[in-house]
Amino acid sequence: MEMKLTDKILEGDVRAAARLMRGIEDDAPEAIKELESIYLHTGRAYVVGVTGAPGVGKSTLVDAIIGIFRRENMTIGVLAIDPTSPFTGGAILGDRVRMQRHSLDKGVFIRSLATRGYEGGLSKATTSMIHIMDAMSKDIILVETVGAGQAEVDITKVADTSIVILTPGMGDEIQMMKAGIMEAVDILVINKADREGADTLQSQLEGMLEMKAYLPNEWKPSIILTEAIYDKGTEELVAAILRHKVFPGDKYSAGDGAS
Ligand SMILES: Nc1nc2c(ncn2[C@@H]2O[C@H](COP(=O)(O)OP(=O)(O)OP(=O)(O)O)[C@@H](O)[C@H]2O)c(=O)[nH]1
Ligand SMILES: [Mg+2]
Question: Over 60: is that where the pLDDT of 79 sits?
Fold first, then answer.
């Protein structure tokens, strides 16, 4: 890395960004050094975490909302954390194919991060990737993580808005949420609402939310029903994200307060 990658990245050089990301993945000392100058140019992007069990439709939903944000002229970074489990081994390729309709759009940058070999360092790598996309001037950074395993990244800690996706007929999921995710979630999405049981799940979730007394100045999680494959409910989801983005006093403290 003979020349300053940071300057190139700030100028919008996508290949420079990809190169630095590779360096981070390889744990290269020069790349880690370079990150220090990247940090000086971060804090502007809005980070949205999208999590949920394998196959709930995270990638399909991310793909759909990219289109809506792009119509608003917002630039997008997508980071798909791939657990590379035996069951989802093809996820990286799958995500690329799924989000292909955005591949020629210069306003969209998509990157997968394989978790294999990271162990404890995954959170750090994730944060670094987010910082690089932030320095690339992406307005919105969507981070897809699988929220079922034990070793998953706790994206809620870095996300400005945290979305948890559920699907009808997932009783276990609700149990998992009681165990803690509920504390950090901003938007609950019931995807595959075309399937039976969406109404039941919705009332279960509403019941859970009612157990807590929300103060008037406190954000109460929104529940949004979507059918990602049919692009249904996706406008409502983006509207909820943007509502949370401007909601006063909440977790939106990482940015530059440009409101
Ligand atoms: N019926 C129905 N199927 C959907 C919907 N959204 C997504 N799917 C399907 O669900 C499957 C999984 O979708 P993905 O977007 O890959 O799900 P994911 O959560 O990203 O999966 P992983 O990354 O492997 O955890 C695909 O076959 C989608 O076509 C929906 O609203 N309704
Ligand atoms: Mg996916």
Answer: yes
